[in-house]
């Protein structure tokens, strides 16, 4: 066996006995992977995506289908329609979601991708060119797409190794003509740098990439230590604020960002404001730096009677960043009392027009929460309790209105989540 085969076989040992979804395009890389996985005795299912953008797309699908029929391997194909925006970004989302769906339906523990050594170097070169700060440079042998494990057993093999493997075993494959052009920057780098490099030059590139990996890992380790010890807002005044902000954001959002983008965000976050980023709301407020998912909102709850109120005890409600329970005891500011006339009660988001009657007068809910110096991304997710007449009778951190105060309260709304205040 070639050296890359030994490494691939060793990597695959823990996966034997588990069902694996193999992502197979029909090209030499993925056909070599499919055959190698089968020869190693893995329990396989094959996923193929046909974007129908080339005249030869049907040929590639047929190549994969025939191999699977010959070896009695379950075969699934997706023919997506209606590409939106950037084709490469859309296509990646579509195929990975297809792998995830297929793996769930077929009981697969992971999806195997046929990335090889040239793909690792291309990725690293792209990351460096765009000044992106990934979790690591190049590609990792294992990763995740949502809750699906992603494995790459062929990273020690070159593209030529895999084509030679197919040719030696007479395994059919197709060549994707779109990879021969220079329409995409990745193709340009492949043709101008990697295809022109001899084995020694590629080895030098791999050594350089590994050095970059080590430096990045060390820098991320230090950033993680800083963020574990200091309030997040402190990162904004450090010399390497842009790097620390990227580390903090990536830990929240799961995305990685470039240096220029982070430097711009550091400037914006020098004063109080909310910034939308990849489905998250990032807020600088006084001495707080917070990140909350935009879609993280609570579903309103309706309590028809006193029995329903008592049944809600110990059941969390609200958003994930501001969760509460109704309790039989608590602090004075968490207490309220209701009568039968108040029902049904509605627990849910407050509106800009909502007001609450306090001992010193009537005040808008939003204003009252602002006076408590609660960040916007938190206060907009704080639930209030309203009675049957749509009157606000209780607001967390503010308390109940004057009509529902009692020295012997009947219920308490207790905060479960603590944020930096």
Walkthrough of the structure:
By secondary structure, the chain is an alpha+beta fold. 38% of the residues lie in helices and 20% in strands. Strands 3-2-1-4-6-5 form a six-stranded mixed β-sheet, sandwiched between helices. It has a five-stranded antiparallel β-sheet with strand order 10-14-17-18-19. A four-stranded antiparallel β-sheet has the order 11-12-20-13, with no helix packed on it. The longest helix is centred in the middle third of the chain and has 31 residues, at 199-229. The radius of gyration is 28 Å and the shape is elongated. The mean pLDDT is 92.
Briefly, what is this?
This protein has helices at residues 3-12, 28-39, 57-70, 87-106, 117-129, 159-169, 185-194, 199-229, 241-253, 259-268, 306-311, 365-371, 376-379, and strands at residues 19-23, 43-49, 75-78, 110-112, 142-145, 148-151, 273-277, 280-285, 288-293, 301-303, 317-319, 322-327, 335-336, 345-349, 355-358, 361-364, 383-386, 392-395, 399-400, 411-415. It is an alpha+beta fold and 421 residues long.
Features:
421 residues, 20% strand, 6-stranded mixed sheet, 5-stranded antiparallel sheet, elongated, alpha+beta
